[in-house]
Amino acid sequence: MGKLWSGRFQKETDRLVDDFHSSIPFDKRLYKFDIEGSIAHAKMLAKCEIITIEESKEIVQGLQEVLKDIEDGNVDFSIEAEDIHMNVEQLLTAKIGSLGKKLHTGRSRNDQVALDMHMYVKEEAKEVLQYLRKLQETLLSLAEKHINTVMPGYTHMQRAQPVTFAHHLLAYFEMFDRDVERVQDCYKRADVMPLGAGALAGTTFPLDREFVATELGFGAAAKNSLDAVSDRDFVIEFISCASLIMMHLSRFCEEIILWSTAEFDFIELDDSYSTGSSMMPQKKNPDVAELIRGKSGRVFGSLQGMLTTLKGLPLAYNKDMQEDKEPLFDAADTVKKSLLVFRPMLATMKVKENTMARAAGKGFTNATDMADYLVNMGLAFREAHEVVGKIVLYCIENNKDLENTTLEEYKQFSSVIESDIYNFISVDKCVSARKIYGGPAPETVKECISQKREKLSKNEVL
Ligand code: ARG
User: Which amino acid residue places its CA nearest to atom 11 of ligand 1?
Assistant: First the structure.
């Protein structure tokens, strides 16, 4: 079949060009949105008396049949028809005859592709939000079980101060909470309907853009025709949200990988979320966590790619913009698959409370608490810091912990230290004394979890 735009051409496009510029191999996945958009457009054309009601009905029915044919796997898309928009139009015309040629009245592929992309991003955003919420629920359930599981908190990858595993998990809850807000916000910008912008300058037909927007569940119609067809901010925003989610998952995976080493031994991944080695029979590897960490790179790459593609584009549509699809699709697929596999991997891992607690008791994680004790006894914090620093050095040289250093030994460093010091610096006490808002004390964390549960139960994703 000839090209839908072949009128002013005297030669066929070269086969190499067809292969090079056709987007159908990847934009065919937009078929559902493309057809829904066309159905709304056809209804509107009749409402505005641009085509008759009978014509509109026939077109709509034809489009519904095309949709069914595609879904039943009965359609071979054609490279010569270039993209999903012209493929659908050709399929329609093949079905209902020349009436199909009226569908494109007052429309361009430029506003059509923008519409499809807006619809796609809205749907993906909704799905990502659901996955994020599920993950947050899993985090809360896991945290509930580990309110009293003491573990070392780190700075510079050195043991710093004791926290609890619940508190650590809730840090990730906060990250995913910000991700939820970002995706919700991105959704708002995707929720703008471009049809009616035409190729760039609107159309002479009196289209009812509000009707199409409502019909397709959009909040509003785009306000400027040039912007409507040139804007891909919402694509970049979505990939940017996906990048941050992947970055958060990747940090979490990095910790899971470290925790599952023999050196840490804080967790053991379930067999169903681990893999073996083809050579070393003893190996159990955290491949899933590594792969999520690895896949973050391709999503960041998509973000960089899209920014670069758009940065030099003059208004309005340029074919460069066809390059928006693969990075967007890949980012959406990757973030969804990662969220999907990460959640059960987390939920099924075995947490080794005893090793965590033992590690929290080593490495002088209670040294700050000892300094705080001295402050309570009247020393300035900087003096207290110096005294405890000397005590720690003494302990290291004499192979001791703060817990088993005698009062007599302590007195050599500061006369104000009394026997109540041992209670003050016990690891459990170090945690439970941090009742401060946002801190790790079990009672604080418990309260925090119930507030979050409450918020999750009330908060609709969209
Ligand atoms: N396949 C094209 C894309 O994805 C559709 C729009 C084509 N418009 C045009 N004037 N060539 O961007």
Answer: 319
- φ, ψ of residue 230 to 5 degrees: the values are -100, -20
387 assigned to some structural domain: yes
As a residue count, the chain comes to 462
Q: Which residue out of 98, 156, 272, 457 is catalytically annotated?
A: 156
Closest residue CA from atom 12 of ligand 1: 322
277 in catalytic set? yes
Give the pLDDT of the chain (462 residues) as one tens digit per residue: 578 888 888 898 888 998 999 999 999 999 999 999 999 999 999 999 999 999 999 999 999 999 999 999 999 999 999 999 999 999 999 999 999 999 999 999 999 999 999 999 999 999 999 999 999 999 999 999 999 999 999 999 999 999 999 999 999 999 999 999 999 999 999 999 999 999 999 999 999 999 999 999 999 999 999 999 999 999 999 999 999 999 999 999 999 999 999 999 999 999 999 999 888 889 899 999 999 999 999 999 999 999 999 999 999 999 999 999 999 999 999 999 999 999 999 999 999 999 999 999 999 999 999 999 999 999 999 999 999 999 999 999 999 999 999 999 999 999 999 999 999 999 999 999 999 999 999 999 999 999 999 999 987 766
Number of domains in the chain: 3
The residues facing 221 across adjacent strands are 193
- Euclidean distance between CA atoms 21 and 82, whole angstroms: 7
Please give all residues whose beta carbon lies within 6 A of any atom in ligand 1, as ranges.
23, 27, 83, 109-110, 113, 317, 319, 321-322
Q: Are residues 298 and 171 in the same domain?
A: yes
CA-nearest residue, atom 2 of ligand 1 = 322
Domain boundary (334, 354, 374) is at 354
Cβ 60 vs Cβ 49: under 8 Å: no
DSSP codes joined into one string, 227-267: HHHH--HHHHHHHHHHHHHHHHHHHHHHHHHHHTSTTT--E
**Which residue segment(s) compose the domain that 368 sits in?**
360-458
Out of 5, 18, 28, 83, give the residue to mutate to test ligand 1, the one with the largest number of ligand atoms within 8 Å of its CB. Answer: 83
